[in-house]
Amino acid sequence: MHRRSSARGISRVEALAVGGAVLVAGLFGARLVVSSPGDAAARAHDDAATVALAASTWRAEHPGECPTLGVLERDGALPKGARAHDPWGGRFRVACSSSGVSVISAGPDGKAGTGDDLREPPQ
To answer: Rounded to an integer, what distance in angstroms lies between the CA atom of residue 92 and that of residue 103?
Structure first.
């Protein structure tokens, strides 16, 4: 008695469905991997603005004090999903002055005090 193999191949419809799924996944993956520097800078400004708002709120509740990012995290002052790191992997830094709170990123080069640093709000 011969056993029949269950391997029958795939139909055209199945091949098209798999090919389409792979294509869509590839397009989304490429979008995540290949982002323009402008996209990263815009995301950094948005994330820094979120941290700056949380720091300003915290500071209003603690007059005369300036929070660090660690203090904001410890106190639960950052909104859920807020990012403490910029798109280049650096950690944001909070700076306070008499005029308010700023959040600073060292920018793409990762070195503080260079021309590509980001500050929110901008000066």
So the answer is: 6
Do the domain assignments include residue 17?
no
pLDDT at 1 over 60: no
Q: How many CB atoms lie within 10 A of CB 55?
A: 26
Q: How many CA atoms lie within 13 A of 98 on its CB side?
A: 0
CA–CA distances in Å: residue 92 to residues 55, 69, 76, 104? 12, 7, 16, 6
Examine residue 86 and state whether it is found in any structural domain, yes or no.
yes
Q: How far, CA to CA in Å, does 63 sit from each of 22, 55, 92, 97, 110?
A: 55, 12, 22, 12, 31
Predicted TM-score (pTM) of the model is 0.70
What pLDDT digit, counting tens, does each position of 17-45 carry? 554 454 444 444 444 444 577 899 999 99
For residue 63, the domain's CATH number is 3.30.700.10
CA angle, residues 91, 104, 115, in degrees to nearest 5: 110
